[in-house]
Amino acid sequence: MGQEIQVNLWWRMVDTEKKAHEILDLRGWSCPWCLLKAKSWLRRMSPGQVLEILSTDPQVRKDLPQVLEKSRDRVISVEKRKEYFRLLICRG
User: Fold this and answer.
1) What are phi and psi of 31, to 5 degrees?
2) DSSP characters for the chain?
């Protein structure tokens, strides 16, 4: 049974690394521009699709999840990379 749990956790980790349907590169841009572009791109996507957002603005980590609270879209993950942030958003 312990091995089954480890396998399930491993698949969840792999799942968050899956390729996004769309990649929105906002490196160099700041909020609120990042938020407006992300919402615009999400509106064009189908439910269940994943949008990958790349941003150098640290404020996007806080602001985007707050903006998405009013929608069905959900943050899957937020990662801090060496020079930017990577967010995965699932279209609701």
Assistant:
1) -70, 145
2) -HHHHHHHHHHHHHHHTSPPSEEEE-TT--TTHHHHHHHHHHHTSPTT-EEEEEES-TTHHHHHHHHHTTSS-EEEEEEE-SSSEEEEEE--
Name every residue whose Cβ is closer than 8 Å to that of residue 22 and which is 6 or more positions away in sequence.
Answer: 41, 45, 49, 50, 51, 52
For the segment 3-44, what is each residue's pLDDT rounded down to a tens digit? 444 333 433 444 545 679 999 999 999 989 999 999 999 999
Q: Which domains does the chain have, with CATH numbers?
A: 20-90 (3.30.110.40)
- The tokens describing 34, both together, are 């990042």
């609120």: which residue's tokens?
A: 32
Report the alpha-carbon distance of residue 31 to residue 37 in Å, rounded. 10
